[in-house]
Design a protein that fits this description.
This protein is globular. By secondary structure, the chain is an all-alpha fold. It has two domains: 73 residues; 233 residues, MetI-like fold, CATH 1.10.3720. Belongs to the binding-protein-dependent transport system permease family.
Length: 330
């Protein structure tokens, strides 16, 4: 199979998965107790008023008609209108999406910066105190719920020491980049951004960091035992060169795959972290929409999250196939 056919096949599979996400998300409205009309109609609304609201929202139509109309409008980029906010869901969702992506990328950076060096050190100093410490840290990271960790970080670093902010988003990456090319104070904007994003990025990226640490360690141990490493040592090459140019390079192929997959997971899994830190992203919108029974906003958010996960998976598969042509087989 050629590389182009592989990309086409994965893209068609991704389209099928997205269609499945749309179908499941649409069906959730009808299997969940209660009616969306309750979120719109006054508490003392008469039956006639409720019927008029249902007709206006199209909820009096048969299920297959509602589904067909929803898919048709979705293909045109129309996710409907929020019951509570009165805004177009497409606008509402894509206003929140950059904050979620920014948090997911920041969490990934925190995880990568800590995990890969820890994994390498743990593998090269096996059964030493550093190895035990890295293993203990990774086990703690995998076992710790991110919402509990977020609350502890707030209590310690925001409430007790008043180093970071507890909630919100004071600045974004765009503000930092803009301040770097304008007369605005760059350092002040950067510090403001770090004050708001550091704690949620750590809380969201801790599990990711622990996973990458263990994966890097096991991969390095496997590579360091192979013959080419022994041959490089016999030739007298420096240990640092062997570890980082040869062994680590080969270890990074599965790590890259997990990085991409986990980035999609972070986008979808940021819901609880965003709620803890009141981060104005898709996760917060999902929680608010559930509490308010705002189905159009909830459906739009879940579809975008699911589509983002699928796109990241496709991108990872394409990059992996490019790096390792053996993946593309007949």
């Amino acid at each position: 199979m050629s590389f182009g056919r592989f990309v086409l096949r994965r893209s068609l599979q991704g389209i099928g998965v997205v269609w499945g996400v749309v179908t499941v998300v649409f069906a959730l409205r009808f299997v969940t107790p209660g009616s969306p009309i309750n979120a719109v109609a006054p508490l003392d609304a008469s039956q006639e008023t409720r019927q008029a609201i249902a007709a206006e929202l199209g909820l009096d139509q048969p299920l297959y008609i509602q589904y067909g109309r929803y898919v048709f409008e979705l293909l045109q980029g129309d996710m409907g209108r929020s019951y509570i906010r009165g805004q177009e869901v497409t606008t509402l969702v894509f206003e929140r999406l950059p904050a979620t992506i920014e948090l997911a990328v920041a969490a990934s950076i925190v995880a990568i910066v800590l995990a890969i060096p820890l994994g390498v050190i743990s593998a090269t100093r096996r059964n030493e105190p550093v190895d035990y410490g890295a293993t203990l840290l990774s086990l703690g990271g995998i076992s710790t719920p991110n919402f509990w960790l977020g609350i502890m970080l707030i209590l310690i670093f925001a409430v007790e020491f008043n180093v970071f902010n507890t909630s919100g988003r004071g600045a974004d990456v765009g503000d930092v980049a803009l301040s770097a090319i304008t007369a605005e104070p760059f350092v002040g904007t950067l510090l403001t951004w770090l004050a708001y994003i550091t704690l949620p990025a750590i809380a969201l990226g801790t599990y990711f960091m622990a996973l990458i640490t263990r994966l890097t360690r096991s991969g390095m141990l496997d590579e360091l035992s192979k013959g080419y490493v022994q041959a490089a040592r016999a030739k007298g090459l420096p240990r640092t060169l062997i570890r980082y140019k040869h062994a680590l390079r080969n270890t990074l192929i599965p790590v890259i795959t997990v990085l991409g997959l986990q980035l999609g997971t972070l986008i979808g899994g940021a819901v609880i972290t965003e709620a803890v830190f009141s981060w104005p992203g898709l996760g917060t919108l999902v929680i608010e929409s559930i509490n308010q029974r705002d189905w159009p906003a909830l459906q739009g958010s879940l579809i975008v999250i699911g589509t983002s996960f699928v796109l990241v998976n496709i991108l990872v598969d394409v990059v992996y196939a490019y790096l390792d042509p053996e993946v593309v087989t007949d």
